[in-house]
From TrEMBL:
Name used for this protein in its record: Large ribosomal subunit protein bL17
Keyword annotations: Ribonucleoprotein, Ribosomal protein
Annotated organism of origin: Paucidesulfovibrio gracilis DSM 16080
SUPFAM superfamilies: Prokaryotic ribosomal protein L17 (SSF64263)
Complexes and interactors: Part of the 50S ribosomal subunit. Contacts protein L32.
């Protein structure tokens, strides 16, 4: 029985799954929007939301924990200095998953776009209108 077992295995070994999530997290934080399968996007959401939560704490220990996942000092600096300040007032939901109408051509897998939600820009626009 599979009681209390969370997460998708994605038909990969543990090491392969870990590497996949690291690479996808790096790509998402670099480009702020990537196209992938629905199952991978839902798993990636957990990883990226955790990294943004770490970045909101903004201390040395958080930076070291983020580096453990990202393995890139420039990306950690970007996460803490540019991406996290956008979500200062947000209590979660740092990513958005948009399902695409057309499935993947080869195996008909459901595809989607995962992107960083733009919380900070929406707050600034409301302030400018008022």
């Amino acid at each position: 029985m599979r009681h209390k077992k969370s997460g998708r295995k994605l038909n990969r070994t543990n090491a392969h799954r870990k590497a996949l999530m690291r690479n996808m997290a790096r790509a998402l934080l670099t480009h702020e929007r990537i196209r992938t399968t629905e199952a991978k996007a839902k798993e990636l959401r957990k990883v990226v939301d955790g990294l943004v939560t770490l970045a909101l704490r903004d201390d040395l220990h958080s930076r070291r924990q983020a580096y453990k996942t990202l393995n890139n000092h420039q990306l950690v600096q970007r996460l803490f200095d540019e991406i996290a300040p956008r979500f200062k007032e947000a209590k979660g939901g740092y990513t958005r998953i948009l399902k695409l109408a057309m499935p993947r051509r080869g195996d008909c897998a459901p595809m989607c776009v995962i992107e960083l939600a733009r919380e900070g820009e929406a707050v600034e626009e409301k302030a400018a209108e008022a």
